[in-house]
Amino acid sequence: MKTQHTRKVLRLAFKTFILFCLLPEINILLAQSIYVPYAFTNFAGLPTVPGTNDGGGATARFSAPAGIAVDSSGNVYVADRSNDTIRKITPTATVSTLAGLAGVSGSSDGTGSGSRFNQPGGVAVDGAGNIYVADKSNNTIRKVTPSGVVTTIAGLAGSTGTNDGIGSAARFYQPRGIAVDAATNLYVGDMMNNTIRKITSGGVVTTLAGLGGVSGTNDGIGSAARFNEPYGVAVDSLTNVYVADAEQFSDS
């Protein structure tokens, strides 16, 4: 049977996570003492009912939401992919559209509904509440301020490629995952280029790992490493980057 797997560093993290998840179960068998079950509830939107409505809780609607991030105040930001919008959900589950216009794709910078996205995928939020968006089908990386002002910080809408460079001189090919570190450096899963990119706070784009256009499974340093449609990315406090390498398979 074919099963998907992540790169080694992430697999090890998952094994550790599973171990710690199992420990409470073991304690239940031994002492029935420290296990606390999680309760899952529907926070916003209504299952199987797509739409564009803002509103509270189940009155809000989404369409194929893809990426999600949470700020230090507990606000949730969602890349509402098929609506081509960025949504905000307060801790009390009030949903609003922060940027983009539902059902209208494009690449325009602007404020609020005056901006446009094209199938936004991953989102990340920094300590100041700025949201960063991997705008997948525009092949760009966008920034959204807390007040909804959208700018393009890297890549050129409608142009694919592998170029490193500054701002619009850089190229991406369907960027999907994005993460931000404490210094506001961004890390991007450049999905169809099979690379991991880094963007400094000054907009300088470099290829951190992988080789543009070449897929594979090799571990290694920099361009010697290989990925196959890297999807999700995360970064820890030591700036180690973790990658969900979507199209890697193994027989098991």
Describe what is shown at a glance.
With about 250 residues, this protein is mainly beta.
Keywords, separated by commas or semicolons:
mainly beta, disordered N terminus, single chain, five-stranded antiparallel sheet, 252 residues
Question: Order of strands across the biggest sheet?
Answer: 2-6-5-4-3
Low-confidence stretches: 1-32
Task: Indicate the mean pLDDT.
Answer: 87
- Globally, the shape reads globular
Helix share bin:
under 10%
Alpha-beta classification: mainly beta
> Main beta sheet, described?
5 strands, antiparallel
Rg is 19 Å
Strand content: 35-45%
Give me the number of helical elements: 1
SSE ordering: EHEEEEEEEEEEEEEEEEEE
Q: Total strand count, please? A: 19
Distance between the termini: 6 Å
